[in-house]
Specification:
The complex is a heterodimer of chains A (96) and B (303).
Chain A (H helix, E strand, L loop, with lengths): L5 E3 H8 L3 H9 L6 E3 L2 E5 L3 H14 L3 H31 L1
Antiparallel strand pairs in A: 1-3, 2-3
Chain B lengths: L5 H5 L7 H15 L8 H17 L2 H12 L5 H9 L8 E2 L2 E6 L8 H7 L18 E9 L7 E7 L2 E7 L8 E4 L15 E8 L5 E3 L2 E9 H6 L1 E7 L2 E7 L8 E4 L16 E8 L6 H12 L4
Parallel strand pairs in B: 3-7, 9-13
Antiparallel strand pairs in B: 1-2, 2-3, 4-5, 6-7, 8-9, 10-11, 12-13
Helix pairs in contact in B: 2-3, 5-6
Classes of the chains: A mainly alpha (96), B alpha+beta (303).
Protein name (chain B): J domain-containing protein
Pfam families (chain B): DnaJ, DnaJ_C
GO molecular function, one term (chain B): zinc ion binding
């Protein structure tokens, strides 16, 4: 585990004003990975944008944890559908 | 500059309580929040309006000022004067060839109306700015022509005063986004920097249609050559080629020119194909002699 690629859950939660249980719920819902470094739970920095998005949705829009899990899956679907539509549009364009 | 009715934006009464405003804001934010509407410019625009309305109406001081000035909006000279004297701050950057903007979280660029009244994003407290650890992600848009896509391009971008050398692999798709790690906003107190996302928009002003690495084009074949066979010249992306047309070529015949498409993205040395569709050109004007030859042909009962 390369240290510079991880941040402790504790630090993250202090900065974002959320409880650690929030991050562990996201882990439980398979939205992100948590690594153990001695007694500290660590987050990969690649997961930070996603986790910060979840924090925003939770804090700014009052969305509860179950709602976040549902949004996470639906957003994944929206993005793959958007890609599919873009690729179909390109194909359609070649037939015009 | 038009007056913006913030009450109307949030769909609340002018006498609405702070709670009602908060509720209305949250309801609309859940609809338009950029985190819930990926790649949706319209939603982003709506969110900015809703956010701005909330910024004003949820702050008692700003709301008071807005209510007072709002009444006399027809005497707007004061605003115009204030607007002229104030330096524009906090706007999104605009660079030659590409634009970039910050993304994620609350939108922080405001309308001219807002800035004229409250002095731009820097004119008030950091209520809208969230405590962050990781730096902000930046989004940039870069335009290329289809011809540029044929070869790997090297470009230098300047984002926030930093030069970024960029290699754009040949065969990049229209709408494709490349992530440049660590070139977003700086992290806070040792946090990692954000990333820079560059989305490419490929302008196609050629006769070719594109699907991935394959190119498509329709080519006209003179009637006589379609019937008797012959040679035609076709323009490909990299130059002209001579093609043999087989005798009795049908209208709509498809021909594949292997390897004459675009390079395949990140697969060096591999190319897509060029697909030609032949359109048999029917002559519209005939000389007297040609017409009589066609008439003789018709007499042979050729079908």
């Amino acid at each position: 585990m390369k240290k510079e690629n991880y941040i402790s859950i504790k630090t993250f939660c202090e900065r974002h004003g959320v409880g650690e249980s929030f991050v562990y719920s996201m882990y439980e819902y398979e939205i992100l990975q948590v690594e153990q470094e001695k007694d500290d739970g660590m987050l990969h920095i690649e997961d930070l944008p996603l986790l910060e998005k979840m924090v925003r949705l939770h804090n700014e829009l009052d969305i509860n944890l179950e709602g976040l899990q549902a949004i996470y899956h639906l957003l994944g679907q929206v993005e793959s559908l958007q890609q599919e539509v873009a690729s179909l549009k390109r194909k359609l364009d070649t037939l015009k | 500059m038009d007056f913006i009715d913030y009450y109307k934006v949030l769909g609340v009464d002018k006498k609405a309580s702070t709670d009602q405003i908060k509720k209305a804001y949250r309801k609309l934010a859940r609809k338009y929040h950029p985190d819930l509407n990926p790649n949706d410019k319209e939603a982003e625009k709506n969110f900015k309006q809703v956010n701005e309305a909330n910024e004003v109406l949820s702050d008692p001081e700003k709301r008071k000022k807005y209510d007072e000035y709002g009444k006399d909006w027809q005497h707007a000279e004061e605003f115009e004067k204030a607007k002229r004297s104030r330096a524009q701050q906090g706007r999104q950057g605009d660079y030659s060839g590409y634009t970039y903007s910050h993304s994620g979280g609350s939108a922080q660029d405001f309308s001219d109306f807002f800035e004229s009244m409250f002095g731009g994003a820097s004119g008030f407290g950091s209520r809208g700015q969230k405590v962050r650890y990781r730096g902000q992600d930046y989004n940039a848009q870069l335009q290329l022509s289809l011809i540029d896509v044929y070869a790997t391009q090297k470009q230098t971008l300047t984002v926030n005063g930093k030069n970024i050398r960029l290699t754009i692999p040949a065969g990049i798709e229209d709408g494709q986004t490349i992530k440049i790690k660590g070139h977003g906003g700086p992290g806070i107190e040792g946090g990692p920097a954000g990333d820079l996302y560059i989305t490419f928009s490929i302008v196609n002003n050629t006769a070719f249609k594109r699907d991935g690495a394959n190119l498509y084009k329709t080519v006209q074949v003179p009637l006589v050559k379609a019937v008797l066979g012959g040679e035609i010249q076709v323009e490909t992306l990299t130059g002209k080629v001579k093609l043999k047309v087989a005798p009795g070529t049908d209208n709509g015949t498809k021909v594949k020119l292997k390897g004459k498409g675009l390079p395949k993205y990140k697969k060096e040395g591999q190319f897509g194909d060029l697909y030609l569709t032949y359109i048999v050109k029917i002559p519209k004007t005939l000389t007297k002699e040609q017409k009589s030859l066609f008439e003789s042909l018709a007499k042979t009962n050729l079908e």
